Amino acid sequence: MTLALEEQLVRDYLGPDPMTSPRMQAHMDWHTAPENLAKTGNYGERFLLFHKQMIEEYNAYRATRGFLPVVGWDPATPISASLPHDEPLTPNGARLTNNPVAVNPGCRTPTWATLAGGSEPDPLYGYRRLAEFENLDQLGRSIDAGWHGRVHNTIGGDMATFMSPVDPVFWPWHTWIDQVRASWEVSRALRRPRLILAWTQILFGVVNDGPGIVIPPGSGPVPVPGGPGDPLWKVLSPAARDMMIGMLAAELATLVSNERTGQGLQRSAIAVATQAAQSVSAVRNGVLSTRAAALR
């Protein structure tokens, strides 16, 4: 049988016997490792980064053969005719469908896995858009808590097993998931200016004709006590002020394009925050010593 181009590339990449291929074995070993079966530690992050690495290695191989990187496949659309799986690896390895969303609408990318978001909460944390995920571990766990496996299992055949890399659609599917991860990275980068703006407003006040108002991250204007002008600045201790300056400097450092300048700003931020923490600790120890002396 003459295989279609994409299936032939996958077979060439895995080797003449995909069942014993080191590349296939690496995928099977990852999924059957005790810490991954139990989903312990930072499982979600491991899930995303392991498959990201798989895609990068496959794309590097494609480049050596003169082919472009894999294009992500949106599971809301039918599998392209250029991605057939005509030579299943196992007796029951043929796909059950080439249009999984028609069989199971839950294969569609959930709105919480998009930058725009929507009303649908993710299954683990209740987040409704990508930017709300705090880290890759949360994002990976939510993706693997239903959506990822649902697409695999609805397609069926080899895609429903740990030998799924033999099906050519595996690679575009996981490229699509990696694009969700990349979109989350973008959403985090977009949050930084808002965080910096919020810290700046807290540190230096808003404007003198708008006293007692700050805009924390993720919120609208919030009134705070303290009288006119720089309300929080007046009620904070000097050490607390220094700590906030250090945090602001650390956030600004992430936006500096010059690596040396950014590193210098980070070092200054750490120094200021450390000194502030030491001051707080010294005050606390002094208070405790005074209380202890009073009890003697």
Furnish the topology, listing elements before pairings.
Layout: H1 5-14, H2 22-32, H3 34-37, H4 43-64, H5 100-103, H6 136-155, H7 170-204, E1 213-214, E2 222-223, H8 231-235, H9 238-253, H10 259-295
Antiparallel strand pairs: 1-2
Helix pairs in contact: 4-6, 4-7, 6-7, 7-9, 9-10
Number of strands: 2
Number of domains: 2
- Radius of gyration of CA atoms, rounded to a whole number: 26 Å
The unreliable regions are 202-215, 226-233
Inertia-based shape = globular
Helix content, binned percent: 55-70%
**Level-1 CATH class name of the largest domain:** Mainly Alpha
Structural class: mainly alpha
How far apart are the first and last residues' alpha carbons, in Å?
92 Å
Number of helices: 10
- Beta-strand content estimate: under 5%
Keywords:
296 residues; mainly alpha; di-copper center containing domain from catechol oxidase; 2 domains; two-stranded antiparallel sheet; 55% helix; 1% strand
